[in-house]
Write a structure and sequence with these properties.
single chain; alpha/beta; six-stranded mixed sheet; 19 helices; 65% helix
């Protein structure tokens, strides 16, 4: 975690500050409710001494009216307070989810490093909910403390020893409860980590289900998930045992404390130091105190789990960016000239490459890792460890990632489709807001990618709604729709990574010819091993051992042994 980044404590304080108005209002109402509840046994004691013992009907009626008013006030305050407190928790969790989403979607990246998508989803749902509940239980805790204070004052008025017993006994009781909650906090954090990992593995397996079935690897996938799920279950059971032990221990301590209050009250009544009505009030207050103590136990447990979840949220929010900031933007109308000078990252070793503006450049990487690292550099998902990449003479590291991506689009091989219509999927990449601009860009992209042929085969044409991730289409059909989406974006520079690996050779040749026309005058980079696409390139560069080992036209490079092995094998 970088110095100065948010911690779990920062996250909790921010949540409480953000909901302080709701928490304050709910706390005031909750304290009123608890104070009224604490006064109920006191009023009953007064009724016994002033009305029942004296046989005064008028006094009995007056105090019964007071009792009815108390119940009316406490009932109204309880309902209103509960509504506000639940709203505070939901609002706090919602704000955390928005903050997490903003960090994960930050163009500088970094938040998803080392985390499966399912794990991030678990943090944004379960952990955010648990931290949001801290705003809810804050008012509960303050209400319980108010109830203890009112009870102590009432007991002091009945008997100083009883009042002192409560006042002096509550602090150590609360301290013991806090100490007992420490194991629960540790085990709750482990439980959430295991649950998040299990969710991530499940999402990973579901997304690759078709591939797993094709490989006959279902049993291995099931075994992997079963092991992960068992670890999550074991962590959840340990947390549940810890919570049960915590609540049981606190309840036992509370029971002993309340029994002590009752015994002291009974002793004082036997000596005649307090009246029968005061004894009833003291016993009633002792029984009532069980509620606030149980409430504090619940609040303590929720805080323990909230702290554990807050630390996990803080780790995501404080994750270092994958690329350094930059605030410049490429100049509008610039040529689209890309130049790499001594670029090193991962499998890349001091790559020098000059991609001329308006050209179609093919790049063949013998090592797929080198292709992946090159794509990460061009899209600024990562900055080079050495060397520099320039766009029209400006280093990419000085450009804001969002501004760079308005001019440079890197379309990865594994691009996913949305659960929407085919047309909406393509429109997602179209530039401009006007319908005429969208229609023109989309029609051209559909034709160039041969995705219009896919649309004609669907029951509702372009308006056919695709299944999740486009699974209702074949692999080649999905690639054509994804290519159409990239072309519809109409970026000045387009980098395509293996866009036709699942497309038949006849259609691929048609796409290759149309692609060049569709991108005429704009810079296009084809990171691929497809002979059909490479044949349309103005120049092909071969990356071998992490460096640019050869370059030329496709027909010239067919004499190169490495090129033949990678492209024509």
């Amino acid at each position: 975690m970088p110095a100065g980044g948010p911690t779990g404590g920062h996250v909790l304080r921010k949540v409480i500050r953000g909901e302080r108005r709701r928490v304050a209002a709910a706390s005031l109402l909750g304290m009123t409710h608890q104070a009224c509840e604490a006064l109920v046994p006191v009023v009953i004691g007064v009724i016994i001494d002033d009305a029942v013992a004296t046989g005064s009907s008028g006094t009995l009626l007056r105090w019964l009216t007071v009792l009815a008013v108390l119940f009316l006030v406490l009932s109204t305050c309880y309902r209103t307070s509960a509504r506000i407190t639940e709203g505070a928790g939901e609002h706090a969790a919602h704000k955390l989810r928005l903050e997490l989403a903003a960090r994960v979607l930050d163009p500088r990246g970094g938040a998803d490093d080392g985390r499966l998508p399912g794990a991030l989803s678990s943090i944004a749902t379960n952990d955010a909910r648990r931290v949001g509940s801290v705003a809810t239980v804050m008012s509960y805790g303050l209400s319980a403390i108010a109830a203890l204070a009112v009870s102590a004052v009432a007991l002091l008025r009945i008997s100083v020893p009883l009042g002192l017993l409560v006042l002096l006994g509550i602090p150590p009781l609360l301290w013991l409860g806090h100490r007992i909650s420490r194991p629960l906090e540790r085990r709750s954090e482990t439980e959430q980590e295991r649950a998040a990992h299990a969710s991530g593995v499940a999402a990973d397996l579901v997304s690759g289900l078709r591939v797993l079935k094709g490989m006959g690897a279902e049993s291995a996938a099931v075994a992997r998930y079963r092991a992960t799920s068992r670890e999550s279950l074991a962590a959840a059971l340990r947390a549940a045992r810890s919570r049960a032990g915590h609540e049981g221990a606190v309840l036992a301590l509370t029971g002993v404390f309340i029994a002590g209050i009752g015994l002291v009250g009974a002793y004082l009544a036997m000596r005649g130091d307090i009246s029968i009505g005061e004894l009833v009030a003291a016993v009633g207050l002792a029984q009532f105190l069980l509620g606030p103590f149980q409430l504090l136990t619940y609040v303590n447990a929720e805080f323990a789990q909230g702290r554990a979840s807050a630390r996990r949220i803080a780790e995501v929010l404080a994750a270092p960016a994958a690329v350094a900031g930059g605030d410049a933007a490429p100049a509008d109308g610039a040529s689209g000239h890309i130049r790499l000078r001594g670029v090193s990252l991962g499998a890349l070793r001091s790559v020098d490459l000059d991609i001329r503006p308006g050209s179609v450049t093919g790049i063949v990487a013998r090592d797929p890792a080198a292709a992946g690292d090159l794509l990460r550099c061009l899209s600024r998902e990562a900055d080079p460890a050495g060397g520099v990449i320039e766009l029209d003479g400006m280093p990419l590291t000085g450009l804001h990632p969002d501004e760079l991506r308005r001019h440079v689009l890197v379309a990865h091989h594994n691009a996913e489709l949305f659960e929407s219509s085919l047309l909406d999927n393509v429109r997602a990449g179209a530039a401009g807001d006007g319908p005429e601009v969208d229609a023109s860009a989309v029609d051209g992209a559909l034709h160039a990618s041969a995705a219009d042929e896919v649309a004609r085969l669907l029951p509702d044409g372009e308006d056919t709604v695709l299944a999740e991730r486009g699974r209702s289409l074949s692999g080649g059909q999905r690639q054509r729709v994804a290519l159409a989406r990239a072309l519809a974006a109409d970026r000045r520079i387009l980098v395509l990574h293996d866009p036709t690996t699942a497309v038949d050779t006849v259609t691929e040749s048609r796409i290759a010819a149309r692609l060049r026309d569709a991108r005429r005058g704009r810079t296009t980079v084809l990171v691929t091993t497809s002979p059909a696409l490479l044949a349309t390139a103005d120049r092909v560069v071969v990356l071998d051992q992490g460096v640019a080992a050869a370059e030329g036209r496709h027909d010239e490079l067919t004499a190169d042994e490495t090129y033949r092995a990678v492209v024509l094998a």
